[in-house]
Structure formats: C-alpha cells, structure tokens
TrEMBL record:
InterPro entries: Oxoglu/Fe-dep_dioxygenase_dom (IPR005123), PKHD_hydroxylase (IPR023550), Pro_4_hyd_alph (IPR006620), Pro_4_hyd_alph_FE2OG_OXY (IPR044862). Binds 1 Fe(2+) ion per subunit. This is Fe2+-dependent dioxygenase. It comes from Aquisalinus luteolus. Gene3D superfamilies: q2cbj1_9rhob like domain, Rabenosyn, Rab binding domain. PANTHER family: PKHD-TYPE HYDROXYLASE YBIX. Keywords: Dioxygenase, Iron, Metal-binding, Oxidoreductase, Vitamin C. The lineage of its organism: Bacteria, Pseudomonadati, Pseudomonadota, Alphaproteobacteria, Parvularculales.
Length: 225
C-alpha cells in the first residue's frame, strides 16, 4: 500500500525542523547505502549524532509515532533511526530496493514499510520526485512540505535528479507488527470504517463492539509481537 499522510508537520513544526538543519554538519550520503545502492546514490545526509541532531531526531520521531494514520496504516513494531538528506546540483538516488534487514543490536529490524517526510516546498526545487514502482504502474510523488509518504520497502524506487534548488527530506523504515501488506490494508480499511461509525453509533453499541472485537481478533491472529 502506498499512502500520503498530509501535514504530518504543521507550518510551525516544519519551520523549527528546517531551522535546526541549518546548524548541522552534512556528510556524503553513500556511507549509509547498501552495496547495490551505493553506486546510484548522490546526496548529503545530516549528522544527527550531536545534541542538536538528537533533539531533532526525537522531535520528528514523536510526530511519526504519535500520528493516528501512521499507527493505523503501518501497525509499527519498530522504527529505524531517521536519515535526513539534502539533494541538489543534479544529485539523485537511482533505482534501488531497500535492504531487508537494517540496524544492529536492539535497533535491528525487518524493513516492511519505507517512508519519506518531505521538508522542502515542491516549488523550491526542480526534479527530486519520489518514484515508486508498484505492480502494474509507477507512482511519481512530490507532495507539499510536511507531508509523509508511506510505501513498500520491497518496491523498486528512486529519487529523480534535482536539477535546481535543494530537496530536503527525512527518510526511515518501519517493521510492522503485521508482516503481510494485504493484512495491513484490511486492518486499515476497518480502522477507517470504525472512525466513520463512531460518528454514527453511540459508544457501546452492538455495531461498534462487534467491529472492535473483529479488529482485535484479527490482530491476535496476524500480529507478531
């Protein structure tokens, strides 16, 4: 499932994030690419190891983990460390597939879902679209600053060359409690139905209780804790 979550960061939060980036050091992005992706990656990444970088990392991660649509669509078990990239002057990230396993120790995770949080207004740079190959079609995305795109880590995807301006984005990966994408989509549909029904039926109604039970029981069957 490919999904755009609008305004994960509001304008004030976005301004705080982009302001914080001004004080960080930027390094060659190939250092974090897998072997096959290294040859097609040309960008810079913010060094988030200092206090300012850690604070920024935690600020964005709190927004991700606390967003109800992210929770409903991804059913997160673990989030990876975040990566903030800067792409300019013809930089790009050519066609690649994300590594199936990332991280070390307690941070080790299976990559089920990839995400890109766009930090630059789309009219401030040329090119730089996120291009995701899905069964039967290709999706090209360049949403507003503050928007988040969730997409399958199993897909072939790329960042098109940035021909002018600067593209800032935050990327990361999610290991889901529900490994199967088809099952996650069913649960997401049911969550959306439940949200709609809460405006139509009283709390404790037989309809809502039955739906609550069905969602909980599907999680019992499908979740990997």
């Amino acid at each position: 499932m490919l999904l755009t979550v609008s305004s994960l960061l509001d304008p004030a939060e976005l301004a705080d994030v982009t302001s914080a980036l001004d004080g960080l050091e930027w390094k060659d992005g190939t250092a974090t690419a897998g072997r096959s992706a290294r040859s097609v990656k040309q960008n810079l990444q913010a060094d988030l190891r200092g206090r300012a970088g850690q604070d920024l990392h935690e600020q964005i991660l709190r927004k991700l983990t606390g967003h109800p649509v992210v929770q409903a669509a991804a059913r997160p078990k673990k989030f990876s460390r975040l990566v903030i990239s800067q792409t300019a002057d013809g930089g790009h990230y050519g066609n690649h597939t994300d590594n199936a396993i990332m991280g070390k120790g307690t941070g080790r995770l299976r990559t089920d879902i990839s995400f890109t949080l766009f930090l630059s207004p789309p009219d401030s740079y040329e090119g730089g679209e996120l291009v995701v190959d899905l069964p039967g079609y290709t999706q090209t995305l360049k949403p507003d600053a503050g928007d988040l795109v969730l997409y399958p880590s199993s897909s072939i995807h790329q960042v098109a060359p940035v021909t002018s301006g600067i593209r800032l984005a935050c990327v990361g990966w999610i290991e889901s409690l529900v490994r199967d994408s088809f099952q996650r989509e069913i649960l997401f549909d049911l969550e959306n139905l439940r949200a709609k029904m809460r405006g139509q039926y009283p709390q404790g109604s037989a309809e809502l209780l039955t739906l609550d039970k069905s969602i909980a029981n599907l999680m019992r069957v499908w979740a990997e804790t």
